[in-house]
Amino acid sequence: MEAEMFSKSLIVIVAAMLFASSNARAEPKTTCVETTTDASASFEVTVDYKTPSFKELNEAFDWVDPSFEKAVFKKFGDQTPRKIVFEYLQFNKPISSNQVFLEADKRNLRPATFEELVAFAAAYPLEQRKFPIVALSSVAQVDGNPSVAFLGQGDDGRGLDLLWAGNDWFVHIRFLVARK
User: Fold this and answer.
1) pTM score, two decimals?
2) Residue pair 104/111 in contact by the 8 Å Cβ criterion
3) Please, which residues bridge with residue 134 across strands?
4) Least enclosed by CB within 10 Å: which of 22, 133, 140, 177?
């Protein structure tokens, strides 16, 4: 029952993403994308880079997408435990995953990994209640499709879900990023 209610809330988020994607396709793509970052919204987190088990994820969140049980995330960069300062990157219109990577790179930022997203959620559990938070470097193959992890809020509380990485992302999404 609880998972079903949370899933219904996530369907609303996905529907908004699809609506934004269809509207974005109607407009010509431009190379100029306005972004916002809030320097006051920075979050220091100690990340140990240990990938949590499905059981640990279920203990940490109110709802977890069942696909996490079989998901294997790619490892990126240095896996040495350390403190990282995260911030959000937000766009003023729907944007593709590739565009997010390009815009982050221009600002000497990189998208967060899966282990970083989970550590962020543990350190700042109320943040995902404000808006969905995506970690674009949290790539896992799910049913043959590249998917990324995101934090969300549903009727049943805090959730951890996977979405197809090929989406155009709607404007309410925040991308968790760190300095390179």
Assistant:
1) 0.80
2) yes
3) 150, 175
4) 22
Of 96, 148, 101, 152, the closest CA to residue 128 belongs to 152
Strands 168-169 and 95-96 come out as: antiparallel
Q: Tens digit of pLDDT for each residue in 68-104?
A: 999 999 898 889 999 999 999 999 999 999 999 999 9
The two beta strands, 35-36 and 133-142, are unpaired
Question: DSSP H helical segments within the chain, as ranges?
Answer: 2-26, 54-60, 97-106, 114-123
**Amino acid sitting at position 79:** Q
User: Among all chains, which residue has been given the structure tokens 């240990």?
Assistant: 50
119-144: average pLDDT: 95
What DSSP state is assigned to residue 52?
A: P
Average pLDDT taken over every residue of the chain: 83
Asked whether 125 and 99 are in contact (CB, 8 A), the reply is: no
CA distance 78 to 137: 13
Distance of CA 50 to the CA centre of its chain: 18
The residue range of the domain holding 86 is 2-27+35-179
Instruction: Please give the Cα distance from 117 to 121 (Å, whole number).
Output: 6
The residue to which tokens 């790539």 are assigned:
139
Question: In the predicted model, what is the mean pLDDT of residues 176-180?
Answer: 95
| Distance of alpha carbon 89 from alpha carbon 67, whole angstroms | 26
Number of separate domains in the chain: 1
